[in-house]
Design goal:
By secondary structure, this protein is an alpha/beta fold. The protein is built from ten helices and ten strands. Helix 1 runs parallel beside helix 4 and helix 5 (160-170) packs across helix 8.
Amino acid sequence: MKAETIKKAIKKSYGAIAKDEIQGGCCGTEPGCCGTGGLSSAMIQQYGEIEGYHKEADLSLGCGLPTEIANISEGDTVIDLGSGAGNDAFIARSIVGEHGKVIGIDMTPEMVIKALRNNQRLGFQNVEFLLGEIENMPQVQNNTADVVISNCVMNLVPDKEKAFREVFRVLKTGGHFSICDIVFTGALSKGMLEAAELYAGCVAGASEKGAYLGIIKSVGFKNIRIKSERKIDIPDDFLLKYVDSRELKVLKETGSHLYSVTIYAEKLDDGSCCDPLDGECCGSEENKGTGNTTCCATETDGEKGCC
């Protein structure tokens, strides 16, 4: 399925949720899956009495609690990717306090509008919500965030490598991310992976767990750890809408499973004198993205420079 088709389906479904046209949670537009024992109830975790929680900002779209292991400190700048109506952003704000800052980014206009209205009602001056895509965030400068959080959104992004490169770019050196997402082990059927309804339901965009961690490592993150992992049990009657009985049997026999995971990783200083994603500090565009970070003493001041 083409990236733009996927994004269009997601915007349509999540826009309808934001406008209260459907009650979907992770189910998106799928009728009947959000009842007891349905897909949404299998995905979401309850926020309960978490400080900073505002029920009106919780649309039950997540699959974890990213702020709980994010090591956010007072005064930090936090970016929430796929911020929805502002749920996790407002919780992060309760931690960073008056002197910190929280930036929420979401590609669905209706969600941004809902988050802005929630923030206006709450009166926070250090929380902002921006319209944009995770794969391309030109409105956010390099080295902006101390912490990046996200809750069941990265799996919806067609180009995950590009998205994680953007996360790497906007994080400060020494910063880290805490991302909750859906991954799978084994092999999911093509029907499940390509169903547009499931793209708006936190499943179809999921990556194989090892491949997902490999992408994170490939863009330069260190100390990658799965901080929590929870198996997602999806009812057979729901799966049979997307796979036939033979495929379902194969899924069960091969041990293919979905998991909600919370992943932590850090952007560390590797000792080089310039960022391999930034060609300017290395003196020429040809060095950009090549990892050519050889350092030498300049003739003028003896400081480290790029050769």
